[in-house]
């Protein structure tokens, strides 16, 4: 799964329609703007199978468009192969982290470093709260957290 430069990242949340597609789109834009996108394989996925094949939540898409970012992502569930092919799996909260680590235990050749995306937040907001039951401001907060975290993650891995 590694790109020409050998880097790969999978962003993960519960349903892959709010937080992780925002993080994926933000990171892809940052990598593109910095000229590093060809060195990366970038994707996102879900711990659940609830939304497989769905587009991101309309509020996620509206938030991204507001910031000039486009995505054509379709929700998918994290697979066992992801643990063997992605260098980094970055998730949004403790529940995601617990589910991913449990799934990783069943993978013989797990190479992925599984972490909270928020561990890269310079403002030390470790968890990126699910905005699904929230409003526009909650999606904007997710976007802002993803921008901060993705910026640091990209800088540390460039």
Characteristic key phrases:
158 residues; alpha/beta; Rossmann fold; four-stranded parallel β-sheet; 5 helices; 14% strand; globular
Low-confidence stretches: none
Shape: globular
CATH fold label: Rossmann fold
Distance between the termini: 18 Å
Largest sheet: 4 strands, parallel
Backbone CA Rg: 14 Å
| CATH class category label | Alpha Beta
β-sheet strand percentage: 5-15%
Q: Give the helices and strands as they follow along the chain.
A: EHEHHEHEH
Summing up helix and strand content along with how strands pair, one would put the structural category as alpha/beta
Number of domains: 1
Helices, by number, come to 5
Helical content band: 25-40%
Write structural notes for this entry.
The chain is an alpha/beta fold and 158 residues long. It has a single domain (7-157), classed as Response regulator (Rossmann fold). 39% of the residues lie in helices and 14% in strands. The chain has helices spanning 19-33, 58-66, 80-85, 94-104, 136-156; strands at 7-13, 40-46, 88-91, 113-116. Strand 1 (7-13), helix 1 (19-33) and strand 2 form a beta-alpha-beta unit. Helix 1 crosses helix 5 (136-156). The longest helix is centred in the C-terminal third of the chain and has 21 residues, at 136-156. The model has no long low-confidence stretch (mean pLDDT 96). This is Low molecular weight phosphotyrosine protein phosphatase.
């Amino acid at each position: 799964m590694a790109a020409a430069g050998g880097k790969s990242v999978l962003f993960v949340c519960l349903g892959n329609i709010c937080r992780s597609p925002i993080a994926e789109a933000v990171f892809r834009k940052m990598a593109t703007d910095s000229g590093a996108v060809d060195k990366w394989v970038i994707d996102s996925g879900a711990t659940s199978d609830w939304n497989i094949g769905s587009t991101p939540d309309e509020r996620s898409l509206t938030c991204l468009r507001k910031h000039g970012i486009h995505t054509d992502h379709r929700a998918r569930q994290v697979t066992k192969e992801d643990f063997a092919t992605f260098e980094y799996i970055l998730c949004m909260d403790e529940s995601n982290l617990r589910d991913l680590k449990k799934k990783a235990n069943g993978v013989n050749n797990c190479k992925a470093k599984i972490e909270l995306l928020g561990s890269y937040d310079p403002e030390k907001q470790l968890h990126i709260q699910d905005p699904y039951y929230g409003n526009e401001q909650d999606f904007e907060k997710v976007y802002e957290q993803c921008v901060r975290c993705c910026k640091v993650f990209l800088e540390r891995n460039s």
